[in-house]
Amino acid sequence: MEASIAVIKGDGIGPEIVDEAVKVLKAVEKKYGHEFHFEALLAGGAAIDQVGECLPEVTVEKAKKSDAVLLGAVGGPKWDTLEGSKRPEKALLGLRKSLNLYCNMRPAVIYDALLSASPLKDSITKGGIDVLVIRELTGGIYFGEKKRQGESAYDVMSYSKDEIRRISIKAFEAARKRKKKVTSVDKANVLETSRLWRETVNEVASSYPDVTLNHLYVDNASMQLVINPSQFDVILTENMFGDILSDEASMITGSIGLLPSASLSDGKKGMYEPIHGSAPDIAGMNIANPLATILSAAMMLRYSLNLDKEAEDVDKAVKAVLDKGFRTKDIAKEGESWISTSEMGSLVEGEIL
Ligand code: NAD
């Protein structure tokens, strides 16, 4: 197949980790006979330095025309003195908005080889953890009317059936590619938006008889994530609950350099990026962990390009490299030897070819 992939390296470690993900995508391209057209686009601090703004119009236009966007990370101390609206991180919000990325997906996986990195007890993680948190990203309380009146303030939480339906469909579709279980998280015992949420999720579920659905209140879900995380496959939830639960799910894996993410729009278009930032403290040193970005590229293959087998190949290659004991500095135990960013990328590439 042919696909156009917009590549935004960004700042800090962005260029180093994206180069490794592109290396891996090129290995997939070669092995399976695909044709990927990569186009480098500017955003973030790099764009401010070169063209004076964090999100040039041409980047938005070309990102919109591509099948998917692969992003490193943006931001860094060099631009920290700029006022809020001019800072590199604004580029992310601009991209999410112009591409209408309403569905955020964050998998949290604990690899057998890295079980000890989890802050949870072995007795809890030994069942294996492979959770995909699907968070509604453009509605809810973060986007509702907000006001301060003297000594009081309010934020309005509102959802329409359409908003709930489209994110639910993403969750059920994703579950079909996984273990076929959706846990919808809400607060339907208290919130009217949650009652509409639950009703709508149930309606969507009727079109997916092959997927099991259960509902949990958000307070219970946050407890279950730390006492019995292996019960989860796909967690579907609204914006604010998802913000909190996706961070909680990430942290139980214990390794920020390994966590990818996807933000999807209608159809297949999406933006893929590691959950970590630009790590300016280690930029340019060839020691950053590229695996989160490589795994983000695997999500791109799965969700935007519909290349499930190829995505699985990349996931397996990462697992194989970890099983063989290779570590970047961030995931190496004290005294353990470690390899560079580019060596890690090449090892994953080698497993694929
Ligand atoms: P960060 O995620 O960049 O770094 C936190 C810590 O984790 C640092 O010690 C860093 O060295 C380490 N780390 C992060 N990614 C790593 C990797 N792949 N391999 C090894 N170690 C890694 O968070 P921060 O320090 O709070 O933010 C730094 C900059 O990144 C800021 O300008 C922030 O605004 C920006 N940021 C960007 C994004 C994004 O582009 N999506 C997200 C978060 C933060």
From TrEMBL:
It is an enzyme of class 1 (oxidoreductase). Its main location: cytoplasm. Its EC number is 1.1.1.85. It catalyses: (2R,3S)-3-isopropylmalate + NAD(+) = 4-methyl-2-oxopentanoate + CO2 + NADH. GO terms for molecular function: 3-isopropylmalate dehydrogenase activity; magnesium ion binding; NAD binding. Mg(2+) binds at D219, D243, D247. Homodimer. This is 3-isopropylmalate dehydrogenase. It comes from Candidatus Ornithospirochaeta avicola. The lineage of its organism: Bacteria, Pseudomonadati, Spirochaetota, Spirochaetia, Spirochaetales.
